[in-house]
Amino acid sequence: MPTTTNMGWPYPGATDPPDGPGQIGALANAVDTDLYNLRRPAMCVLERTNAQTITDTAVNVIQFGVGTGVWDTLNMHNETTNVGRITCPTGWDGYYHVYAQLGLLGNATGVRELFFRVAGGGQHYFLQRAIEGSTNDRFLTTGGLIFMNAGQWVEACARQYSGGSLNTTSSDDGIHARFSAVWCTSG
Question: Is 165 left (phi over 0), alpha (psi -120 to 50) or beta?
Fold first, then answer.
């Protein structure tokens, strides 16, 4: 049986022997799988409730270890290896809405940055920058659409220029690190 160009659904070809129940069954199963997957799209939401040290001037990947997955429909996050990544699962290539939030403890010196890095490349996406002038805690949020192929991953990263290390805020401080990726549409 040939398949449709876009969805890969089977249909009877002109030279296929007649088998109505078999051919309709194959099409029904293919459509059913695709419709089921639309009910639970690829999405991953992570939270970090304890502090993480962000070193001065370096790109720091926000780490989300054991117990940080709030919602992960297709095992996009591994809690023991590469704990800063959300990975695009097989069959879910496309555009993802990514979001990150992060709090840094107060320090009146320098600049704070929050951004995304896709598949470890040097390109930074959706940079949120704050120039300090206050000793109050600084909260940053950023988000947007990125494209990922199966196996590619995205990281939420922070960088700061205070002259020394700074800790992120924890749940005790009222806000904590959060990172998410939600599939929107195929490319």
Answer: beta
Give the domain CATH number at 54: 2.60.120.40
3-state SS assignment for residue 20:
helix
Examine the domain organization and report whether 5 and 74 are in the same domain. Answer: no
- Please tell me the pTM assigned to this model: 0.78
User: Which H, E and C letters describe 155-168, residue by residue?
Assistant: EEEEEECCCCCEEE
User: Which residues constitute the domain of residue 47?
Assistant: 43-185
Nearest to 167 by CA among 50, 49, 53: 53
Instruction: Quote the mean pLDDT of the chain.
Output: 88
Query: Of 172, 100, 110, whose CA–CA distance to 139 is shortest?
Result: 100
The contacts of residue 18 (CB under 8 Å, 6+ apart) are 12
| Pair 135, 162: CB distance under 8 Å | no
In a shared domain, residues 31 and 50: no
Clarify whether residues 18 and 64 are in a common domain.
Answer: no
Are 137 and 103 in contact by the 8 Å Cβ rule? The answer is yes
Contacts of 171 (CB under 8 A, 6+ apart): 49, 50
pLDDT digits (tens, 9 = 90+) for 112-158: 999 999 986 667 788 888 887 777 888 899 999 999 999 999 999 99
Closest CA to 103 of 180, 161, 49: 49
